[in-house]
Amino acid sequence: MAECADGLGTVPEHERILQEIESTDTACVGPTLRSVYDDQPNAHKKFMEKLDACIRNHDKEIEKMCNFHHQGFVDAITELLKVRTDAEKLKVQVTDTNRRFQDAGKEVIVQTEDIIRCRIQQRNITTVVEKLQLCLPVLEMYSKLKEQMSAKRYYSALKTMEQLENVYFPRVSQYRFCQLMIENLPKLRESIKEISMSDLKDFLESIRKHSDKIGETAMKQAQQQKTFSVALQRQNNVRFGKNMYINSDRIPEERNEIEEEDENEEEVLTVQDLVDFSPVYRCLHIYSVLGNEETFENYYRKQRKKQARLVLQSQSNMHETVDGYRRYFTQIVGFFVVEDHILHVTQGLVTRAYTDELWNMALSKIIAVLRAHSSYCTDPDLVLELKNLIVIFADTLQGYGFPVNRLFDLLFEIRDQYSETLLKKWAGVFRDIFEEDNYSPIPVVNEEEYKIVISKFPFQDPDLEKQSFPKKFPMSQSVPHIYIQVKEFIYASLKFSESLHRSSTEIDDMLRKSTNLLLTRTLNSCLLNLIRKPHIGLTELVQIIINTTHLEQACKYLEDFITNITNISQETVHTTRLYGLSTFKDARHAAEGEIYTKLNQKIDEFVQLADYDWTMSEPDGRASGYLMDLINFLRSIFQVFTHLPGKVAQTACMSACQHLSTSLMQMLLDSELKQISMGAVQQFNLDVIQCELFASSEPVPGFQGDTLQLAFIDLRQLLDLFMVWDWSTYLADYGQPASKYLRVNPSTALILLEKMKDTSKKNNIFAQFRKNDRDKQKLIETVVKQLRSLVNGMSQHT
């Protein structure tokens, strides 16, 4: 039963497998057959049995199918045999027709072959024409390239090369002539590079040679523009009544200045007119096309930096003439004008950062050069022209966008040097004025001459105006000349301040400081040197003191003069005052001291003429001649002193009397003088009396009482002591405030007494006296001893 059950189970499975085999593609039968072997044992045998049964079933079905269609097959064969006979007939007819067509088409075939050959030739011709049409533009472009090279149109030639390479050569690259052209293009490019670089070098050499002309043109344009603006501003100032930086008597004749500038502007060329920049543009474009723009930029900048260093080198003698400075500035301006033009017309060749770096380098070098060379300038006119050149130089480059503040800072340094050169120049002017002065009051004989002097110097004296002609000004010719020259100095100082873009307050301060230096240093030094010159006498010194007084009074007019120029009021807080008061006061003090010194020297000259007979027995009865001459001289001198301030004349008179008294005293006490007789003392007393009479005659007004006579009090008391021989009173009252001989020093009295004692011994002057009165001789000895004791006591006390 179990086997029967297994057999029943496998039958459906075998049928399924057979169905899969029949329905499945032969390539996929493998897995199905494998399942037959993977099933139960004897499944293969059973499957084969089932397969045989299936085959038998199919054979039976085939046999049934054949039996069903057999009659139709037989009928078809019969009909096919009937068609065979008709087919053979048709074949014969077709063969015959073909033969006839072949015979008829031989001529057509010949003509057709001719047509084919013509068509092939036509096609070949068309192909040739097409190829030629393709090659002709290439050849034309290459010919155009050659023409451009010959015409030196290198940038166009490079563009043509680009078209050939990118457009034309790819179309005909298979031809040999194209390969030759392709191989030749790099050589042409290299040739263009060399030629353009050669043109650039020529251009750089050209602008190096013409940079001064370019700079001169640019500076002229800047100067004309500035002059036009200044002239226009001045006309506006005149129209509205405004004060300008020049005095009314210094306004230049500029009525047609604007019109002249307009005419000149039309004649000035531009930098494009002077320089052909096409080599730079051409070379830049060429290198840009070749892809070597950076190489070109580096080369151009390197070469221009070398040229900049050459331009910035100054000549060793540049400071000698203004043309040297002008040539230096024009070359630099020309260089940077070219760079500015290149900056604005090209892209990338020159950048603002590059020009700024180049300018900063150049500016440092320029300042160092100017600082060094300007230090050698001793001519203020040259320094002023240098300043004007620097201003034009700075304004020109500032117009092109370059910063120039450091140049204006340099101008302030040069301004100090300019002031020094002005001071030196005016020192020479003052010296010449002093040398040419006659040191006498200015005489005028009519109103015209009077007005001429007044126009030169601000002098006001109602008393002098009331006097009739001829009359004299108290000062000498040097005073108005010095006043005029001080104004000229102010004008000269003002010239440097023009165009420095400074305020009126700063200009006013500079003018006042410069004028103070002129007064306190230059003029004061010249006055002191003049005063100390040996040929300047007392009369000249007196006139110098008078001159300085009037110059001092004129300082306020100089301040007003500066105020009118700058429009800065003197009441302004920071306004500098002129130091004329101290300057001329110092000069007067020096002159006064020199008067005292020269007066004493003159007294010494007279005193040296003294020829006393110190051993005379009796006086001459009159004063010595040298002393009378001296007194007459002093009287005449003190008459000249009437124009001096009272204290100066009084001091000079007192100083002269004191010096005369001291000189006379020293004459008595001279160590070389060994003996003096009483007659000589009496003669000496006559001279001192004349001195006292001179002092009492009030040679200079202003002394109170016998003040001037006190200068001879020492001599008077000493001579009275010896003339009266009042030793007892002297010794008794010595040291008392009310002593009659208070001014007689014991040592002085001792020296003179010993000289007189020596005379008595040698000349027996007291011989008779000693015989008649030996007590008096003993008194002399006693006096000498007492005087010595007083002197010793004084020395011990000291």
Major sheet strand order: 1-2
Mean pLDDT, all residues: 81
How many helices does DSSP assign? 28
Radius of gyration from CA coordinates = 67 Å
Q: Tell me how many strands there are.
A: 2
> Uncertain regions: pLDDT < 50 for 5+ in a row?
1-8, 240-266, 763-770
Topology order in helix (H) and strand (E) letters: HHHHHHHHHHHHHEHHEHHHHHHHHHHHHH
As a percent range, the share of strand residues is under 5%
Q: Give the CA-based shape.
A: rod-shaped
Percentage of helical residues?
Answer: over 70%
| Cα separation of the termini | 183 Å
How would you characterize the largest beta sheet?
2 strands, antiparallel
> Class by helix and strand content?
mainly alpha
Keywords: Exocytosis, Transport
Family: Belongs to the SEC15 family.
Function: Component of the exocyst complex involved in the docking of exocytic vesicles with fusion sites on the plasma membrane.
Domain Exocyst complex subunit EXOC6/Sec15 C-terminal: 407-755
Structural description of this entry:
By secondary structure, this protein is mostly helical. The chain is built from 28 helices and two strands. It has helices at residues 2-23, 29-38, 43-150, 154-168, 176-240, 257-267, 271-274, 278-289, 293-312, 322-345, 352-374, 380-399, 405-436, 447-456, 462-466, 478-497, 504-532, 538-553, 555-566, 580-608, 625-640, 646-668, 678-696, 713-724, 727-733, 746-763, 767-772, 774-797; strands at residues 443-444, 471-472. Helix 8 (278-289) runs antiparallel to helix 9, helix 18 (538-553) packs antiparallel against helix 20 (580-608) and helix 20 packs parallel to helix 22. The longest helix is centred in the first third of the chain and has 108 residues, at 43-150. It is rod-shaped and about 230 Å long.
